[in-house]
Design goal:
alpha+beta, four-stranded mixed β-sheet, 4 helices, 21% strand
Length: 98
């Protein structure tokens, strides 16, 4: 997976196994991901090769987790730092995917 591959997704969720809020939010992201229309691509980034993860975090300016970044046509349109409820996440997707 490359940084360009990641930019082609609609939603990129940055998480970490040691992060308390991530433990609450990640299952929400995974549930919505499994239920959403195939036109919305969501990727969860947390347990990948450490050197690649560091490059990705630097590229996207990730300073804390959870952070969710929304893209359109490879360009960032919005980001949410911190957790959210399922309904808030769905609203963020709907707002940023139009």
């Amino acid at each position: 997976m490359t940084i360009e591959d990641i930019k082609q997704k609609d939603v990129v969720y940055f998480s970490a196994s040691w992060c308390g809020p991530c433990k609450v939010t990640k299952p929400i992201v995974e549930k919505v991901q499994s239920e959403r229309d195939e036109n919305i691509e969501i990727i969860v980034i947390d347990e990948i090769d450490e050197s690649l993860l560091n490059d990705i975090k630097a590229e996207f300016g990730i300073k804390s987790v959870p952070t969710t970044v929304f893209f359109k046509a490879g360009e960032e349109v919005s980001r949410k730092v911190g957790g959210y409820t399922e309904s808030q996440f769905v609203e963020l997707i709907d707002t940023n995917s139009k």
